[in-house]
Design goal:
Keywords: Repeat, Signal. This is MIR domain-containing protein. InterPro entries: MIR_dom_sf, MIR_motif. The protein is an alpha+beta fold and 276 residues long. It is 17% helix and 30% strand. Strands 1, 2, 3, 4, 5, 6, 7, 8, 9, 10, 11, 12 and 13 form a 13-stranded antiparallel sheet that branches. The radius of gyration is 28 Å and the shape is elongated. The N and C termini lie far apart (86 Å).
């Protein structure tokens, strides 16, 4: 009797059973591994998101006035009175590219490196992205309300003087933040030289900038008209560009890691391709 075919059949059955058990175990292992990978990715995304709720140095943003729902704005239109410098106003349009400002180191050089979180109490400059001039104030009177004038000032390299420096005063009534300027947190900007606050009273200009709101600097906080929120913008991720030597002079745009924050439109001239 030839038992060889029977032996081959038994061997084949045994191999099949072993392979099936191995596949089951491998499948279970893959499920467990995939679950761990998913959990890791989820935690990474959650942590990154929670770490990135604040304003960082080098970011480009729009500042929304909470009392009058206008964005801090500038353009190549000079005041007809006062200093005669480039005017700063408030506009209702959310998509206007002339409302973008870059967060920069203070004139004295306080070490605000690209990607560093901005802390409550930090002194900084806001440089108008389109014209390269800095948000500025001085002892001239504003055209309409006769409060302290706010202008855009600086040379071709974005350098001005100490009148360009502003201190971030956070509203901590809602708690949280850990001393950082949160993007969801209302803040005031106090002029470092004159101790007055960036403010919108609601007064509107006529021609050639009809309908735009006057922006001035006022004493004693100025009420709700002095509160601002970081609205649309491109926010540099923390520590992604820590090798940069500092904010330095007027911005040259690199390709940093960033998050685009906006209203779902085209961001008013900013695109999420990594270019400004």
């Amino acid at each position: 009797l030839n038992l060889l075919p029977l032996a081959y059949l038994c061997l084949a059955c045994t191999v099949r059973i072993v392979l099936r058990e191995m596949m089951k175990r491998l499948f279970k292992t893959r499920i467990i591994f995939s679950t761990w990978i998913f959990a890791f990715i989820f935690l990474q995304c959650h942590v990154k998101g929670s770490l990135f709720d604040f304003v960082t140095c080098g970011s480009v943003l729009k500042l929304q006035n909470l009392a009058h729902n206008v964005r801090l704005h500038s353009h190549e239109v000079r005041y007809g009175s006062g200093s005669g410098q480039q005017s700063v106003t408030g506009v209702e349009a959310t998509e206007d590219a002339n409302s973008y400002w870059r967060v920069r180191d203070a004139t004295s050089g306080t070490g605000c490196r690209r990607g560093d979180p901005v802390r409550c109490g930090d002194t900084l400059r806001l440089t108008h992205l389109a014209t390269g001039k800095n948000l500025h104030s001085h002892l001239y009177s504003s055209p309409i309300t006769q409060e302290q004038e706010v202008s855009a000032y600086g040379d071709a390299k974005g350098e001005g003087d100490r009148g360009d420096d502003w201190t971030v005063v956070c509203d901590t009534s809602g708690g949280g933040g850990g001393g950082l300027w949160l993007r969801s947190q209302r803040v005031r900007l106090r002029h470092s030289v004159t101790e007055r606050y960036l403010h919108v009273a609601g007064a509107r200009f006529g021609r050639p900038i009809a309908g735009q709101a006057e922006v001035s600097a006022v004493a004693s906080g100025g009420g709700r008209g002095s509160y601002w929120l970081a609205a649309e913008g491109v926010f540099v991720k923390p520590n992604e560009a820590s090798e940069s030597p500092g904010m330095g002079r007027a911005p040259s745009v690199e390709r940093p890691a960033f998050v685009v924050s906006g209203d779902g439109a085209d961001g008013g001239g900013l695109h999420d391709s990594g270019e400004l």
